[in-house]
Amino acid sequence: MEAKYILTELNNKKIGFLLEDGKLVRTYLLSSESLVGNIYTAKVMNIVPSISAAFLDAGTGDTFYYSLADNEGKNIFTKHGNSEKVCIGDELLVQVSMDPIKTKKGAATSLLELKGRYSILKRSGNVGFSKKFLNEDRKKILRERVKNVIESELGQYSGIGALVRTAASDVPDELILAEVRELAIEMNSILNAAEWSAVKNRLYTPPIEYIEELRDIIAKNKYESFKVITDLEDEYDLMFGKITSEYLEMYTDDMVSLSKVYNIEDKLKKGFNRTIHLKSGGSIIVEPTEALTVVDVNSGKAIHGKDVQKTFLKINKEAAKEIARILRLRNLSGIIIIDFISMKDADDIRELVGYLKGELSRDEKRVTYIDMTPLGLVELTRVKGEKPLTLSDFS
User: Fold this and answer.
1) pLDDT tens for residues 17-68?
2) Is-contact 203 41, C-beta < 8 A?
3) What count of other Cβ atoms lies within 10 Å of the Cβ of residue 45?
């Protein structure tokens, strides 16, 4: 698969567009005010025992939901609070895990994570590996070496572990260990600073997200061919040195804009339409609601030929591929219900489900296939994080 990342300015906004074989699959708002990944000292403003939750003020202007059940035994108290029980007025060290979305509050956790290209330092207490990291003998040795590095830098802080990522499987151990050490030093600095910091203070901001994602794509060798193209000199300079130069290209043609070359605006409009037409003649309708997102697949004028059921399977598979793309493009999350065209043959249904799972596996975020209900509705969940995107975000 060929992929291009186009970084340009549209309507006075810096935006990144990821194209896979010419199809727009991701958008990145570089001016995004996402708080996800930021670490703060926050004050407990309220406790709601009925939902086992606290609500925190981190000085961002928003109140964050903090699950007492999920963080039980792992709270990081700073100046106030000297027991395992969280009380109003306590000060906690937390990391934002979800941005506020419309009327929903954002969320924060004490399960801090620092992400690198090859590893993630986290308060898990153990060293784990990506499922795609298959060399068992290497894992056994590397696990102990990672533990030793963490202990040497964070010995006074218990419960810090790591996840070794898929991208680490093809690089030398020393490179992985050097990154783990760097993250451990950063974590140690944050934990030490928290002990003396004023409340409602930001202690950490994650690296520039889009650059980290590009480096991740390159490290994982995700595509057969990959290129980052921009017409923005400042962003080119920012990426230069962080991304291997062979992947970078500066676009300098003043006659035709970069967005016009790749027909970006048209791709955006079509990708964010309520109704998306399929090549087969069918269509899908996407209806986001407060509680969930509903996707309806219609056959339209595509019913022809003797074997209608095979036609339905063809339309459903085309729709499955498009739905997987739309989830990524619009950053839809939470509960997703898909009403595919009803099929009678059990083998066709199994083929569709297998195909859908394969397409969903391309997603950068975790998408979980739950089940197909007796009514034929497919239930999915997609990890929440940054807010979903609409066409108005680009205007």
Assistant:
1) 999 999 999 998 886 677 889 999 999 999 999 999 999 999 999 899 999 9
2) yes
3) 13
